[in-house]
Amino acid sequence: MGALISANLQPFFTLFTTRPVAFTYRWRYFAFTPGFWLINSMKYLPWIFSSAYRSYYIPSTHGGPDIRVIVFEPVYGSSSPAKSKPRPLHFTVHGGAFMPGIAEQNAELADRVCKSTGAVTVSVQYRGAPRFVYPAAHDDVDDALAYFLSPKAVEQFNLDLNNVTVSGLSAGVNLSLSASMNHTGGIKAAVSFCGLVDVRIGPWEKPKPPGFPTSNPIAFLEPVFDSYAGPLRPKHVDDPRLNVILAPTDKLPQDILFIIPEVDILLHEETKMVERLKKETQGSDRRIEAAFYEGEMHGFPELPGIVSDPVKCEDAWQRMIGFLRDSNEKGGWKWTT
Description:
By secondary structure, the protein is α/β, with parallel strands linked by helices. The protein has eleven helices and eight strands. The chain has a single domain (50-330), classed as Rossmann fold, CATH 3.40.50.1820.
């Protein structure tokens, strides 16, 4: 409950902070407060009495506060690999336009991955905008992933560093792929849900695909959605750490699956990144795949039955699980429950 309370107080910290946050961001962020609370509560409350995961706090190496993560560990059945066998690691990052959230935003994903692949699965939360701007969130995610690749964590959680995969949703894709660049050769696969891979322009400038709503009732919030990168955009326009669409192919995970809704302003940039990666890896043993979902909007896998087709949402989840299982099996890990 402490994580939820702390997260829900963020709008007040931002509104009244002494940090130099522009008023244009402050009032918009405060206006978003009801939605912010609703999202956090919907993601946290189903897990409030759960014993499926444990919380840990990772030291920051960049001068920030400790970084909260939640860790799901597999339960072994009679036909499962022996508990003494080193286990795959899956590391996932929540979205939300680089604004602060809670690790439980990706709890459903983490739980599914853990149960379906046998991987120790970590969901991380990070400092966010507008109170903190680039590279605060990137630093937090980098530190958390680096910790779980360290000898201490490998021993603590009995991890197999030959089987490390990552995933993210929206801005979490940017953060997970960016963190992967620090560990060339160590990240075997990644899954991108509705990935924000190019922040060289603001959300209001991104090309709108066919079927996109003609009017946007939350357009007034776009400046705060852009507050993490926007103020520093000119300085970092060529920075692949922030704009992972520019990342060298050999710095990215070996295999990547892109889950792409077609009614999303991110469609263009994701498609361009897929095209480039496929071209640059043609003839290699690398696996670059994209699954396009007609009629679906940004964030659709998290919204079945509300604005999304539950069948398509479940298909996206199953594609993710199959992709990660294939990656782990190539690394010598076969999971049976």
